[in-house]
Amino acid sequence: MQFLFLICLLQERKPALAIKSFALYFFQWLIGGLVIGLLAGSASAFFLIALDWATNYRESHIWIIAFLPIAGFLIGWSYYKIGQNSIKGNNLLLDELYEHKSPIPLRMTPLVLFGTILTHLFGGSAGREGTAVQMGGSLADQLTRVIGFEPENRRLILIGGVAGGFASVFGTPLAGAIFALEWMHSRQLRWKSIYPAFWAGWVAHWVCESMWGVGHTAYHISEVPSHTLSNLFWIIPAGVAFGLSGRLFGETSHFFSKVFSKTISYPPLRPVVGGLLIALFVWISDSTTYLGLGIPRIVEAFENPLPWYDWLAKTGLTGFTLGAGFKGGEVTPLFFTGATLGNALHGLIPLPLALLAGCGFVGVFSGATNTPMACTVMGMELFGVEAGVFLALSCGIAYVFSGKGSIYSSQDLGWKKSWFY
């Protein structure tokens, strides 16, 4: 990838300058990507260990959910008093990528880390990608303070931080790099960002999994049918459903955020009220299925038929949790929503249950984040390349039919804004 730089300069007939510039670029990002990967991978390892502890403790001490309103106040008050622009979360990373106003504050890392752990410990419905990405971007951007990079190099730092955070938290180094490049593009892909993204993503993944020994959940598609026209055709309606589901997920989160902002003027009280209602929901339903990450349910979606409404329940509860001001990511809940929706479609679409769950797993994610390439590669990293054609179709169709919606309000959708409504 980095050889593109050398080729471009050689075409200008400046071989000495080309070699010097290439060497500077290569070694600069060899070291830079290594540092970013070490920071992002280590942060993700600590986060995953803490998150696993919080989940296990909550499930063995259900009574702790009654204290979710108190946890909500602590989170809301912390962001209100010292969070400043950190409250924008992933959107702050996008804003800084596009406008380069000021370095991302280091306080974002501890705030989102402990905010997410508290959310999961006391029973909120949220994910982990947002936390890992924000930690990766925040930690990486501290290099800007130390070295004073120019805007173009700072862009590469942010992309490397996002790649490292995503790759290490999910165990998907290729998808992590592609996600950062695809998610953070601003109408065009800058080829200089390819090398830092892939290198930082791989280092972060290695640091988390090999150096710290933190593993990731394994998923398996037990049966992949032949690529007949009939089988491929059935992916079309499934992909449409996944795209609309991704759009619904994003709109739900934005809706609840607006409702809480309009009805409760004092920000720390929003998660208090939200926590009370979530705790009441758990008490009435007598179920914790839709709390936290929901990974056991996701794994089950690949194996056995589940209630058809699982995907709706997770969409609503996660949108409500994040809209109320609790912290965490959206991606794992999107995995939950997609896998259970694919599971529900098994009764209508004559394709293997696990394949539909896998296509939904990445398809809804693709529709909600507008990153079909990253989602396709992630699916192949998680489920195997055998299902690649089905996964790619699912992600592409979901991307199209999600319209101009996104779970990230600051995401630059470029030409897609002219599509649809």
From TrEMBL:
Pfam families per UniProt: Voltage_CLC
GO CC entries: membrane
Domain of life: Bacteria
One annotated GO molecular function: chloride transmembrane transporter activity
Membrane topology: Multi-pass membrane protein
Keyword annotations from UniProtKB, A to Z: Membrane, Transmembrane, Transmembrane helix
Protein name, UniProt field: Chloride channel protein
